[in-house]
């Protein structure tokens, strides 16, 4: 007997128990999704009935499918004349644009577009989608929109531009999604959202999806939703979604951060893929040059890079081509829900940055931006963002080399690991107040310091009943590595960092042109286009790439004491795959329940 969707005591445990179009179920089966996640279980049934949805669910919990599947189903059934069993229709789509999906960043727009491609793999041309946040010329965007795609994915600003020039018609719109709803306004899209809200036809179905429920989300709810079905899991339910991120912090000074980084990556104490978050663009290059001297390759990701390069980096990282990404967290959100008054400014990334291609009419972050005296004529994309929403796959560790400036940002950063049921860890370096002043990154307001943020994160995680523990390296053992770290750090001068930044930007602009031409036609051709090549602005001494045996001495290794106070750490490595980037790594399996930080000394070959 078929259950009525509105039966409240019913929660479907398999996708096939959901009355979704068979073509969608076929696609889901090929993706090996066995069961719907809690947000999908709760949201899909009311969404299929046409209810507005307001859903808050943790990062990596499958919110994208929770809104896409019902929308795709409803579009398909309307194409089939309302008969879902008429699944054989693989003709052309008819009618105008039915769904508008708004996301805050270009990275996210690209990701949602790719997910739609996956979910509609068996739908022929019935569900066409266009991503107008892409870096393509206005005339191409216009011609794409004139083909009346069923779904348009965009940032609010691009959508507003095309709506104003009448290339985007909203008259046949039936579904509106605001993904990462809590972020949309802090990215400065307020005016665009107002423009769009006034243009929407009456009675459309709205989906507000968010990892946190904030005042901004409430505001959007008032503007766009009618009596929505609200999904807010309790902590227990949320923790049932895959693994909780194992979280640790280490108290350190500025130089010791580099020392720790060197030891952690050179000795492969973390196995699998990592994202290292830093405070600004210069720090990206400082770290990359630093690691380069030890033969450790990494890619950088920041708002200054051309959007095609950014998308390609994320794509290749997800295919395990790279092991380490050093990312900035520009457009980082400041202000915790209960501490708005204390933190009024938004950290806007690089000082003196200006707006990049394609963003000429984009609005700026709504809150005040810190101005710098030293103005650098750098360009940056206000629609860049990788700490929010981007589905980095199989990430073992998020390493906060620089602590974020708010607990909200912290939550989104660590959400890049332990996704889709995988496990993961987050390791955060924090600099205690007495050591902080001199080394405060220029992008961080003086009112904010690591200790204050750390306390907020502790409070936040305690509320969520999640452990957030100190990880006490035996710093004495680290000291043996310090002179090498000092050597390497000395070589990474300000000038070297600036040169690397310029050199990389030039290389990526060339790469981006290639990417632009080839992205659609033959992405496989772009394999050779690597983003982690040596920048070579600093002379690399070959001996630095090796770790001498004496540093790996048994006693020293074992004595590193990679124990954290309060007992040993039950750690399960998230990433089952390994990077293909380096030949040596190929095929290595990662122990499932092993603490990656406990294998110190294993840099040495096993007998
Ligand atoms: N039912 C499912 N079973 C297995 N994997 C799933 C399922 N639903 C989604 N996924 C996978 O989980 C990952 C995270 O999903 P998604 O990006 O939608 O999370 P999210 O909740 O939107 O996260 P964020 O808040 O960070 O944007 C994706 O790789 C997706 O393919």
TrEMBL record:
Keyword Coiled coil: yes
Reactions the enzyme catalyzes: ATP + H2O = ADP + phosphate + H(+)
UniProt keyword ATP-binding, yes or no: yes
Biased composition regions of type Acidic residues, renumbered to the chain: 333-354
Gene3D superfamilies: P-loop containing nucleotide triphosphate hydrolases
Listed CDD domains: DEADc_DDX56, SF2_C_DEAD
Coiled-coil stretches: 495-522
Domain DEAD-box RNA helicase Q: start-end pairs: 13-41
GO cellular component: cytosol; nucleus
Lineage top rank: taxon: Eukaryota
Gene Ontology BP annotations: gene expression; ribosome biogenesis
Gene Ontology MF term list: ATP binding; hydrolase activity; RNA binding; RNA helicase activity
Record keywords, A-Z: ATP-binding, Coiled coil, Helicase, Hydrolase, Nucleotide-binding, Nucleus, Ribosome biogenesis, RNA-binding
Localization: Nucleus
Residues covered by region (Disordered): 333-385, 563-607
Pfam families the record matches: DEAD, Helicase_C
Similarity comment: family membership: Belongs to the DEAD box helicase family. DDX56/DBP9 subfamily.
Protein name: RNA helicase
Species: Arthrobotrys conoides
Taxonomic lineage from the root: Eukaryota, Fungi, Dikarya, Ascomycota, Pezizomycotina
């Amino acid at each position: 007997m078929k259950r009525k969707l509105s039966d409240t005591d019913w929660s479907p445990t398999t996708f096939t128990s959901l009355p979704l179009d068979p073509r969608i179920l076929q696609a889901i089966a090929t993706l090996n999704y066995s069961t719907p996640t809690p947000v999908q279980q709760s949201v899909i049934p009311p969404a299929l009935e046409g209810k507005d949805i307001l859903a808050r669910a943790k990062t990596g919990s499958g919110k994208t499918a929770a809104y896409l599947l019902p929308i795709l189903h409803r579009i398909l059934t309307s194409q089939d004349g309302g008969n879902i069993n008429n699944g054989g229709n693989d003709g052309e789509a008819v009618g105008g644009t039915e769904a508008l999906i708004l996301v805050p960043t270009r990275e996210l727009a690209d990701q949602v577009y790719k997910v739609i491609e996956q979910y509609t793999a068996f739908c022929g041309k019935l569900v066409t989608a266009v991503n107008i946040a892409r870096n393509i010329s206005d005339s191409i965007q216009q011609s794409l929109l004139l083909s009346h795609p069923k779904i348009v994915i965009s940032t609010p600003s691009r959508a507003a531009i095309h709506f104003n020039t009448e290339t985007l018609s909203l008259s046949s719109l039936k579904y509106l999604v605001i993904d990462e709803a809590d972020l949309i306004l802090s990215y400065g899209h307020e005016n665009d959202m107002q423009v769009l809200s006034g243009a929407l036809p009456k009675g459309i179905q709205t989906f507000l999806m968010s990892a946190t429920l904030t005042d901004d989300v409430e505001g959007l709810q008032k503007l766009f939703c009618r009596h929505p079905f609200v999904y807010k899991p309790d902590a227990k339910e949320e923790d049932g979604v895959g693994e909780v991120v194992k979280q640790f912090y280490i108290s350190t000074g500025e130089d010791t951060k580099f020392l720790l980084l060197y030891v952690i990556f050179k000795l492969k104490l973390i196995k699998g893929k990592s994202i290292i978050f830093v405070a600004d663009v210069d720090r990206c290059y400082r770290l990359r040059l630093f690691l380069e001297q030890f033969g450790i390759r990494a890619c950088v990701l920041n708002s200054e890079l051309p959007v095609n390069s950014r998308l390609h980096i994320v794509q290749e990282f997800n295919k395990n081509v790279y092991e380490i990404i050093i990312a900035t967290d520009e457009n980082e959100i400041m202000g915790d829900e209960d501490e708005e008054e204390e933190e009024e400014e938004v950290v806007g990334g690089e000082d003196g940055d200006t707006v990049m291609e394609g963003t000429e009419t984009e609005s700026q972050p709504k809150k005040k931006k810190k101005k710098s005296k030293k103005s650098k004529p750098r360009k940056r994309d206000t629609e860049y963002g990788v700490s929010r929403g981007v589905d980095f796959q199989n990430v073992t560790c998020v390493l906060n080399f620089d602590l974020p400036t708010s607990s909200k940002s912290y939550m989104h950063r660590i959400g890049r690991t332990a996704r889709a049921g995988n496990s993961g860890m987050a390791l955060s370096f924090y600099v205690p107040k007495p050591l902080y002043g001199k080394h405060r990154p220029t992008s961080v307001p003086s009112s904010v310091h690591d200790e204050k943020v750390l306390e907020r994160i502790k409070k936040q995680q305690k509320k969520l009943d999640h452990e957030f523990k100190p990880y006490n390296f035996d710093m004495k053992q680290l000291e043996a590595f310090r002179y090498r770290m000092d050597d390497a750090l000395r070589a990474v001068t300000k000038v070297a960092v600036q040169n690397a930044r310029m050199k990389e930007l030039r290389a990526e602009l060339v790469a981006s042109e290639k990417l632009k031409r080839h992205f659609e036609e033959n992405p496989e051709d772009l394999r050779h286009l690597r983003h982690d090549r040596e920048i070579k602005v600093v002379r690399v001494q070959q001996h630095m790439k090796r770790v001498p045996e004496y540093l790996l001495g048994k006693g020293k290794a074992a004595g590193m004491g990679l124990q954290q106070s309060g007992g040993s750490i039950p750690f399960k490595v998230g990433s089952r795959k390994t990077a293909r980037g380096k030949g040596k790594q190929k095929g290595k399996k990662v122990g499932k329940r092993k603490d990656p930080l406990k294998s110190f000394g294993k840099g040495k070959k096993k007998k």
